[in-house]
């Protein structure tokens, strides 16, 4: 196949005198714009690519697309301001085209760095890449394509289903076609990329291709042929359209497939947000990233923060470690944190690229044990899975010492892509970027004291603080949707008081940078953590006190933080850890029992309790009761959503949870598989009990 240079007109239209492509080269518009589901004037295109592992064309198409999208001059062109392109790429881990793209010399950071990180990490599932102020979104679905397709939940809004597919003929089969159809618009098209040994015009020459065409038509797609080496007016040719009768049958089959999955997923409602303004209560990493994700979608947001500025509560630490949470079995929790880890790195890099100042350093994180039990657990984690070297690798004591630039007497795990970031700066940068996009109204020193749902709308009762309006009561609303992302105040309202989530006080100590401690080159994690110096200070801690009565400075916890470092690392350099300045910061992080965040519809506990009375599990009706809780839509508060429970790793888990929730609010195809959505479901604790027949 020739090395085709593909230019994407929807994001890269140039004047004729600036065009670098030959007239014979097909552009993205040439391939897709005339198809039934993607008219050329459409400002929002959703396209999926399913290449073979050794295909050459995806790297060429995507390299040009990403290069154009990263051009600042290009982004300033008025005709591009409202154009959006969303690509879904399905790739095996060993796909040579993905590796070629990651190594492309034409790509610039941060896109190149993120794609390389995704490629090297070899983590299955959906990885989202956002470029050109989110006018270009690329979802890379890594792993077996059929497995990935089956795990995706169809979007609530037909406008966000996939409009067209481009696939290599040698990777498509009947099972894949029906899963592709389940996620597609009713009038979606499927383009088969013609390979050198296939001729779709002569079915007698290739019976398999003829059968494939029939399967495509049976699933309700219009089938096209794409020949990249043809003349410019013959790149795309129609093979066959389904008849009206066969199309009706196909649509029935598609709806049945969607119902079948959603019926099994009823315990986790993924209700779309209502049209209209969205209110967010919060002020930390999660709420700020949600505001940014919604602003990128052009949604109108009112942001309510109880403090003078964002990042004053749990997200107010000077430095916070950012690294994945791995488990030996590498289940949904571990998978989610790896995906969130890569997404958070992308968010930070992109905000810095946009001109926001965010102190950070992806200098790596070195995790070692502090007692026999922790040493055994770390050994179990690193030996249980074939982790990619870019994700986690074992190190012995000499290697650990070289990485840290201090003497480390233990073996451990090194996370090369990890590091530290200023949570407060990250939070404020996300809010500033959201406000720059022009769709956000921010209210500071505004404490929300009550929320109420009336006439299908949400209203807020607040108390305004500040010199001119201290204690003044103000009402806000109506809002079509309300998101509670307010950290330790998440359970302050009647609607959320019963959420199974707990607050843990954490005191982080500030240590002056003195020799030899100032030479530390990587974040250390053991019984506590210790960061490299920033602004002549290190951060260490943190304490972990459940349901603390106050947030005052604690001399006892300051000493405990010192003890954690000195018992974790026995070398003389620990003597330089000086807490006598009594400098520290206290915050509260909300923690769930399973360590996963809460993201999604707010459960209606009163309605669940009422249903529990009628559907308690007994020996006689155990199967009947379990089936009820598995298949009956769980009660939720209409238009009310939860984003919280980030625990001590909110920098890793929060931004991706916010992006998923923004996609849910807007009715999109979510960048998460079904098992991840189940993991994040705010209702999960109660549903697990009810299915097992345990009391609420």
TrEMBL record:
UniProt GO BP: methylation; tRNA wobble uridine modification
EC number(s) from the headed UniProt entry: 2.1.1.61, 1.5.-.-
Single GO molecular function: flavin adenine dinucleotide binding
Catalytic activity, reaction form: 5-aminomethyl-2-thiouridine(34) in tRNA + S-adenosyl-L-methionine = 5-methylaminomethyl-2-thiouridine(34) in tRNA + S-adenosyl-L-homocysteine + H(+)
NCBIfam families, per database record: MnmC_Cterm
Protein role: Catalyzes the last two steps in the biosynthesis of 5-methylaminomethyl-2-thiouridine (mnm(5)s(2)U) at the wobble position (U34) in tRNA. Catalyzes the FAD-dependent demodification of cmnm(5)s(2)U34 to nm(5)s(2)U34, followed by the transfer of a methyl group from S-adenosyl-L-methionine to nm(5)s(2)U34, to form mnm(5)s(2)U34.
Annotated protein name in UniProt: tRNA 5-methylaminomethyl-2-thiouridine biosynthesis bifunctional protein MnmC
């Amino acid at each position: 196949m020739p090395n085709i240079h593909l230019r994407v007109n929807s994001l890269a239209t140039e004047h004729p005198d600036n065009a670098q492509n030959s007239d014979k080269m097909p552009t993205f518009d040439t391939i897709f714009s005339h198809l039934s589901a993607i008219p050329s004037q459409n400002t929002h295109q959703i396209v999926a690519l399913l290449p073979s592992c050794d295909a050459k064309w995806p790297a060429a198409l995507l390299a040009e697309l990403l290069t154009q999208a990263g051009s600042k001059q290009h982004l300033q062109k008025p005709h591009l301001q409202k154009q959006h392109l969303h690509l879904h790429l399905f790739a095996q881990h060993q796909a040579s085209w993905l590796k070629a793209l990651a190594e492309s010399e034409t790509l610039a950071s941060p896109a190149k760095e993120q794609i390389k990180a995704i490629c090297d990490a070899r983590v299955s599932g959906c990885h989202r890449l956002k470029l050109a102020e989110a006018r270009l979104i690329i979802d890379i679905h890594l792993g077996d394509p059929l497995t990935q397709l089956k795990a995706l939940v169809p979007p609530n809004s037909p406008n966000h289903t996939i409009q067209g597919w481009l696939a290599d003929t040698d990777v498509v089969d009947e099972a894949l076609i029906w899963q592709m159809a389940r996620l597609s618009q009713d009038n979606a098209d499927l383009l088969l990329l013609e390979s050198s040994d296939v001729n779709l015009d002569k079915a007698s020459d290739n019976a398999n291709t003829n059968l494939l065409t029939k399967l495509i038509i049976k699933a309700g797609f219009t089938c096209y042929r794409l020949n990249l080496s043809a003349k410019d007016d013959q790149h795309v040719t129609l093979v066959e359209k389904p008849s009206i009768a066969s199309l009706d049958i196909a649509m029935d089959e598609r709806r049945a497939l969607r119902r079948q999955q959603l019926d099994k997923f009823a315990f986790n409602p993924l209700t779309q947000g209502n049209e209209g303004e969205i209110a967010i209560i919060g002020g930390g990493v999660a709420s700020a990233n949600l505001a940014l994700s919604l602003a990128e979608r052009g949604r109108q947001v009112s942001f309510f923060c109880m403090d003078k500025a964002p990042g004053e509560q749990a997200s107010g630490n000077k430095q916070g470690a950012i690294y994945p949470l791995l488990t030996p079995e590498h289940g949904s929790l571990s998978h989610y944190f790896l995906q969130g880890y890569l997404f958070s790195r992308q968010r930070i890099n992109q905000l810095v690229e946009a001109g926001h100042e965010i102190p950070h350093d992806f200098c790596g994180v070195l995790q070692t044990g502090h007692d026999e039990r922790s040493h055994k657990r770390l050994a179990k984690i690193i030996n249980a899975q074939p982790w990619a070297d870019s994700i986690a690798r074992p190190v012995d004591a000499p290697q650990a010492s070289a990485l840290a630039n201090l003497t480390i007497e233990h073996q451990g795990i090194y996370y090369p892509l990890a590091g530290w970031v200023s949570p407060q700066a990250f939070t404020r940068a996300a809010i500033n970027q959201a406000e720059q996009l022009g769709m956000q109204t921010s209210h500071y020193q505004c404490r929300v004291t009550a929320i109420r749902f009336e006439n299908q709308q949400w209203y807020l009762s607040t108390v305004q603080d500040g010199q001119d309006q201290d204690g003044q009561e103000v009402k806000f609303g109506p809002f079509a949707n309300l998101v509670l992302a307010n950290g330790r105040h998440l359970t302050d309202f009647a609607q959320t008081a019963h959420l199974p989530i707990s607050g843990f006080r954490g005191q982080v100590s500030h240590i002056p940078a003195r020799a030899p401690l100032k030479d530390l080159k990587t974040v250390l994690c053991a019984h506590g953590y210790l960061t490299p110096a920033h602004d002549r200070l290190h951060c260490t801690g943190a304490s972990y006190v459940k349901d603390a009565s106050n947030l005052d400075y604690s001399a006892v916890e300051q000493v405990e933080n010192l003890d954690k470092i000195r018992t974790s690392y026995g070398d003389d350099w620990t003597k330089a850890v000086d807490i006598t300045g009594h400098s520290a910061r206290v915050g509260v992080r909300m923690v769930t029992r399973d360590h996963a965040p809460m993201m999604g519809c707010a459960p209606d506990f009163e309605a669940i309790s009422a249903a529990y009375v009628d559907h308690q599990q007994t020996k006689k009706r155990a199967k009947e009761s379990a089936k009820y809780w598995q298949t009956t839509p769980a009660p939720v508060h209409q238009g009310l959503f939860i984003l919280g429970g980030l625990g001590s790793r909110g920098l890793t888990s929060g931004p991706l949870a916010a992006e998923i929730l923004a996609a849910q609010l807007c009715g999109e195809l979510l960048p998460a598989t079904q098992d991840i959505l189940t993991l994040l479901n705010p209702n999960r604790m109660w549903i697990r009990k009810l299915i097992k027949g345990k009391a609420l």
